[in-house]
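pasting for ref. prot 1 ->
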Amino acid sequence: MAAQASAAASGAPLVRAENLSKDFPAGQTGLFGGKLFVKAVAGVDLDVMPGETMGLVGESGSGKSTLGRLILKLIEPTAGRVIFEGRDLATLSRAELRALRRQMQLVFQDPYSSLNPRMRVRAIVGEGIEIHKLARGREKENRIVELLQMVGLGPDTMDRFPHEFSGGQRQRIGIARALAVSPRFVVLDEPVSALDVSIQAQIINLLQDLQERLSLTYLFIAHDLRVVEHISRRVAIMYLGKIVELADRDEIYANPRHPYTRALLSAIPTIDAASRPERIKLPGEVPSPLNPPPGCAFHPRCPYAKDECRTVEPRLEAGKGGHAVACHVFPAT
């Protein structure tokens, strides 16, 4: 909670996750017959401030996409709670939660599978408008045209099907669909990872323009630290269901403290050999979330691990400037 407190000091968060956890049944039993669970998210505290982009970074299987869906209440947590504008989502009635869903939307990773191939663009973008009864008739048509133009597509695209578009165009349609209900908070779940590098830059620029124009708040989920650097104000690093480091973007990139963050940053390609950090190669594989290691979950791969790391789980503690890290060897200062 120390990291939360430092973020909240500058104002009330729009979204707050408190001790958020999610266990999924593994479909198998343990040595003595007990059920096994995948610990996808394990006690995460996270604040997202109004108008900011919070980058959430981690390898595949780190739990970042699950965390995004927990925050949107698309799946129910095993423990913990989500607060949106001071309201605990778990206490809302079905009608209240339905109304709140307008404020919280999701852009999916894969623009090829996230759009219904049997629906025309008109129906895809207009679905949320219809569900929430925001407009009808000519007003609805005008709104769909406005949304498409907002993401760089023309009115002539309304009656076409998803397969008629490129990956970048499909992602623009997905963004228009998310914006159709005028949300305040959008979870972007690896929105450019399936796109060519040249198209990635276009979509990132579009997201930044829309954020400024519409006063949006983003949770930007990614595994690519290069992309996150261009769009995020703060960055949280996630490993095996936990946040291990959180700081302002410039601080993370200039002064990474957790060994996992340092390894991720060392793997970023660069054409400037003089500024390229020494590559840190992590031994072994990410431990199974079915049976996470005791103490610090990163200790089996950490070159700096000591005895304390193997037995005592480090807490995410904030130091100077709100730079928070969960590490016994390189604690917050």
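and prot 2 ->
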Amino acid sequence: MTGTIGDIATTLFGENVSTINIVILLTILTLLPSILLMLTGFTRILIVLSFVRNALGMQQTPPNQVLIGLALFLTLFVMMGVFDQVYEEAYLPLTNNEISQDDFVDRAMGPFREFMHRQVATTDLNFFINLSGLELETNELGFIPNEAIPDRVLIPAFITSEIKQAFWIGFVIFIPFIVIDMIVASTLMAMGMMMLPPAMISLPFKVLIFVLVDGWQLIIGGVVESFLR
């Protein structure tokens, strides 16, 4: 294991590799999966699935492992075109020694940047552009081209936009469940059963209705289609 890490470090940093460089390399390798997930639709999908669980009133069902696994596979489904493009335009040329590592990073980021630029809200993008103090020129249509936006502006704008979009979808999801809670609470109050918790009665009704309307298919379909708009 030590030899493998040393070989990787030597490849990246050269022969004069030090302990601090190995620590930096291990840190990068540890954070890389999280960084890649932030550049995909994983954030929106996982937040929406968490909203569904909370709207149903079940805090631990489905478990976190199931939600994260489902979110990962849905992310793979949504991002497959981007991954294929990265494989063909960046990974294959690198393995064939046609491009350098720096070119690989630039080519690999290209499809991710295009995806993020399509999904990011204009208001969030302009907010981070103004926050950074950059003065970016617009094209003849009045839009800032993708290649002119630095990563340090595009990535946080994309993540913020994803969270905002997920919260909007979560708000829509909560509405029918709140209606069911209100109906159950009003019925119990009219029957004089004020000591009986409404959540205890409304939970099985929410689960039953959610299953009857094939709620998971509706939620998953809506989330996936939100990336195609």
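The chain has a mean pLDDT of 79.
The longest helix spans residues 151-190.
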